Amino acid sequence: MTSDVLIIGGGAIGLSLSVELKLRGASVTLLCRDFQAASTQAAAGMLAPDAENIANEAMRLLCRRSRALYPEWTDKLEQLTGLNTGYWPCGILAPVYDALGITTHQSPYWLDQAAIHQYQSGLTPEVVGGWWYPEDGQVDNRALAHILWTAAQSLGVQLKDQVKVEAFLQQQGEVIGVRTNMGIIRAAHYVLATGAWSSELLPLPVRPRKGQMLRVGVPEFIPELPLTRVLFGDKIYIVPRRNRSIIIGATSEDVGFTPHNTPAGIQTLLQQAIRLYPQLQDYPIQEYWWGFRPATPDELPILGGSHCQNLTLATGHYRNGILLAPITAALIADLICHQKSDPILSNFHYSRFHSQSSTFTPMFTHPANFSQVSHSPSSPPAIEHQTNGRSTDSPLVIAGKTFQSRLMTGTGKYGSIPEMQQSILASGCQIVTVAVRRVQTQAPGHEGLAAALDWTKIWMLPNTAGCETAEEAIRVARLGREMAKLLGQEDNNFVKLEVIPDPKYLLPDPIGTLQAAEQLVKEGFAVLPYINADPMLAQRLEDVGCATVMPLASPIGSGQGLKTTANIQIIIENARIPVVVDAGIGSPSEAAQAMELGADALLINSAIALSQNPPAMAQAMNLATVAGRLAYLAGRMPLKTYASASSPLTGTITN
Ligand code: GLY
């Protein structure tokens, strides 16, 4: 039985949403790779929109709205389960060591030196004052996770732990299922709530930010709780629980998913904690652990729609996942159940990462005015006619990114860097493929590549040229992703996959390509595999989740034109992902012909770079690509065996 909604992720966000959706009458399945590994389990449970001193206004508002939901929300969960969440609006005290800190916070409640020591005994004498945030508080995050799981279970959410989602299966802008280690699971609507692990499934700029933590206990000889509010210092917080545990956190380390506590991490925490509240040095240590915050480049969550109409994103909550769980659940449930989008959500849409670097304005003005068209894979798309009579088209969409130009080019084989720059400009292309290996080894022509092109306008397509095996290609793809990030394309997970063991014809290895594609898709890459024009292979690559297929027209750099037309036609007919004809196109007429067949895009490098006048040829290729596309959309006249006069004969004088 398929559910209305399938949630991927068993942290606070996924679980809260499952409860909210269920309470609104939806049938819900939740898949969780490892309940214990979620950042939710690792957190301290601070509810600290004020103490965190959040600079972004929309985020501050979102956090405060969520904090305001906490009393009622935890009440409801406690009633559902009969368990205690440990919600405690205890306030947060932020002591400072020097007067400089005084100007940096916004709270109206400043306590001077005498007041803060009177208010909270046991602080180090170094404390010269502090801010008091009475509305902040805490929840016992581990208790909350357990309660959310219990509530979801009792409400009838299908909870599946230890299920690893490997890929989204997509067709024409829709998710049609997820591939998991337990087989394919389908639903009407999907939600990605996989936190720090999100980029393994979609090219989202969410990266892990490790936090190490530890817990001490109040010794038995101290009968009363010595701390009854959170202490929030510089790079340290101390969160006293009512059950006499005290959580101390947290480091913030950009080390990927490197596991374990480290001596340096724990030492820093202990030093800072003891400095702030010296008596902790004698408290028994109960536990150490670590977790991974889901960090985004702007440190704001990713909430709302995606490139697929039935996939919603709720991830990237960084330092505030526990705090934001109730508001995320409420807003996302409204969006899914009632298509009601709270205005605040517009601040957190994933497309903010694309606005500068991914949905480009073409550098060359197209002769046609393109807009929307419906595309059926087996027949040319129907053309809408605008009042000015021009035919209309939808832009090229690859892995959720939109491109106006359907011509991709490369950087190789040019006589000089200026010639390459002029040609790329004249081609109007928005995607340029770059050989990662050649950039790495500073091969001739690739030394100044980073500076030669404007990477805010050109989307980089790193390629694995020079790789003979799947393993090599996977390694180079990972380097390519780093290269794109270094050039400012944080969210660029594209890779043009080339696995080519044959040095003479440079023909790709189908088996190695499929193996590498499968692995790279799992790692969150948008994979654009270069293949021989083999329809079955194209199908298999689509099935494993590739973003496009790139069949060759004839061997790379040969300029032999379309030698594989019949097979390319079958690939186009079957594919539900864009088909990019790559390699072998030698002249604009061949480019136009490939587009007339219904190819979604072309990749042309040698035919431009090796022509007598590369910038002029680049422009010609651009025009040919546009012309071929227009012709495809227009639909050519039927072929006839016999001549048929251009001027009709009816009404003519016959004798
Ligand atoms: N919410 C505190 C932290 O992420 O360390």
UniProtKB/TrEMBL annotation:
The keyword Transferase applies. Keywords: Cytoplasm, Oxidoreductase, Schiff base, Thiamine biosynthesis, Transferase. The gene is thiO. Belongs to the ThiG family. The active site is at residue 496. Its EC number is 2.8.1.10. The lineage of its organism: Bacteria, Bacillati, Cyanobacteriota, Cyanophyceae, Nostocales. It comes from the Bacteria. SUPFAM superfamilies: FAD-linked reductases, C-terminal domain, FAD/NAD(P)-binding domain, ThiG-like. It is found in: Cytoplasm. One of its GO terms (biological process) is thiamine diphosphate biosynthetic process. Homotetramer. Forms heterodimers with either ThiH or ThiS. Residues 4-335 form the FAD dependent oxidoreductase domain. This is Thiazole synthase. GO terms for cellular component: cytoplasm. Catalyzes the rearrangement of 1-deoxy-D-xylulose 5-phosphate (DXP) to produce the thiazole phosphate moiety of thiamine. Sulfur is provided by the thiocarboxylate moiety of the carrier protein ThiS. In vitro, sulfur can be provided by H(2)S. Its main location: cytoplasm. Residues 398-648 form the Thiazole synthase ThiG domain. Pathway: Cofactor biosynthesis; thiamine diphosphate biosynthesis. Coiled coil: none annotated. 1-deoxy-D-xylulose 5-phosphate binds at residues 557, 583-584, 605-606. It catalyses: glycine + O2 + H2O = glyoxylate + H2O2 + NH4(+); [ThiS sulfur-carrier protein]-C-terminal-Gly-aminoethanethioate + 2-iminoacetate + 1-deoxy-D-xylulose 5-phosphate = [ThiS sulfur-carrier protein]-C-terminal Gly-Gly + 2-[(2R,5Z)-2-carboxy-4-methylthiazol-5(2H)-ylidene]ethyl phosphate + 2 H2O + H(+). Signal peptide: none annotated.
